[in-house]
């Protein structure tokens, strides 16, 4: 279930309470009058079944409460209550299949921000991939896949395209482009430093190796990217987030970027080009599949998109 808190002007309180009383998927209704300071007003709280949350939030936004007041939603891990059980049973659908679209927009908007933490993870992941290439270590390559934070912005691109939120698309594209560019430049610098220090031999990327799958682009690269994108978006739009770890391990975006940087420094231009192709195929495949999942789940969203600006904090 989700915990819903609404800060509203006093003249809206009765309507909000009536709305939640009429919702079979809502329970544990609490009204606190005059306690809100900024913005001023009353506070109405309730626990709402996930499958009913999107409709409730839409009705609250239709009353302009996201502008004249505030609407916050939090995940409830455990609710020991017969009334909560009844609300979950009475709400239509299944919680795992429910999409809370405003929650998804907020989450992808946050994960698509270009900041120091995102860039730090991109650089570390790309450097790990380069070490995996040089040492021919598939385990290190997998570690780079897990550390890489690129799925967040890719999911944001898909959400933005499907919901026509071009501000979200622009932010996510900038994060991906700048993140990969900076990570590859730093990795190339690290490769040059390693070569100068005698830690790296040009033969490190020549011949057959266990990590050659990183640059071996083909039809299965696209298939894996499509499946990973679909699984990742299903995970983000449902209550089952554990699948994201498998998505991180299955795609070769970060490893391809690291391999391309190393190959370019060592003059292996064909492998550099193939690695870059692998990167592009994976990026495009993930976005396409994630977008398709959203389109297939489109029947659950409302026509209204309040177009709230993305959070910058």
From TrEMBL:
Bilayer-spanning residue ranges: 114-135, 141-161, 173-193, 213-235, 242-267, 273-296
One matching Pfam family: DUF389
Keywords: Membrane, Transmembrane, Transmembrane helix
Signal sequence interval, chain numbering: none
PANTHER family: AT15442P-RELATED
Name of the molecule in the record: Uncharacterized hydrophobic domain-containing protein
Organism: Kibdelosporangium aridum
The organism's taxonomic lineage, starting at the top: Bacteria, Bacillati, Actinomycetota, Actinomycetes, Pseudonocardiales
């Amino acid at each position: 279930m989700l915990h819903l808190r609404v800060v509203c002007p006093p003249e809206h309180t009765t309507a909000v309470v009536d709305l939640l009383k009429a919702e079979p998927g809502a329970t544990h209704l609490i009204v606190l009058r005059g306690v809100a300071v900024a913005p001023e007003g009353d506070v109405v709280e309730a626990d709402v079944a996930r499958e009913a949350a999107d409709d409730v939030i839409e009705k609250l936004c239709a009353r302009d409460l996201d502008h004249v007041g505030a609407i916050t939603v939090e995940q409830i891990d455990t609710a020991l209550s017969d009334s909560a059980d009844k609300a979950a049973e009475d709400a239509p659908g299944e919680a795992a299949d429910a999409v809370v679209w405003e929650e998804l927009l907020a989450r992808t908007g946050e994960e698509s921000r270009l900041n120091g933490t995102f860039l730090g993870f991109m650089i570390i992941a790309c450097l790990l991939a380069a070490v995996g290439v040089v040492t021919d270590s598939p385990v290190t390559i997998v570690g780079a896949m897990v550390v890489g934070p690129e799925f967040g912005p890719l999911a944001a691109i898909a959400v933005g395209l499907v919901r026509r939120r071009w501000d979200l698309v622009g932010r996510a594209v900038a994060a991906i482009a700048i993140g990969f560019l900076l990570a590859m430049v730093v990795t190339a610098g690290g490769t040059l430093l390693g070569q100068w220090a005698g830690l790296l031999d040009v033969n490190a990327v020549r011949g057959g190796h266990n990590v050659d799958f990183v640059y071996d682009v083909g039809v299965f690269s696209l298939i894996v990217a499509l499946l990973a994108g679909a699984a990742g978006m299903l995970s983000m739009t449902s209550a089952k987030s554990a699948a994201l770890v498998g998505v991180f391990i299955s795609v070769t975006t970060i490893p391809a970027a690291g391999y391309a940087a190393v190959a370019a420094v060592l003059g292996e231009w064909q492998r550099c080009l193939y690695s870059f192709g692998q990167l592009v195929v994976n990026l495009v495949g993930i976005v396409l599949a994630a977008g398709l999942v959203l389109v297939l789940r489109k029947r659950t969203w409302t026509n209204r998109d309040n177009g709230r600006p993305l959070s910058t904090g």
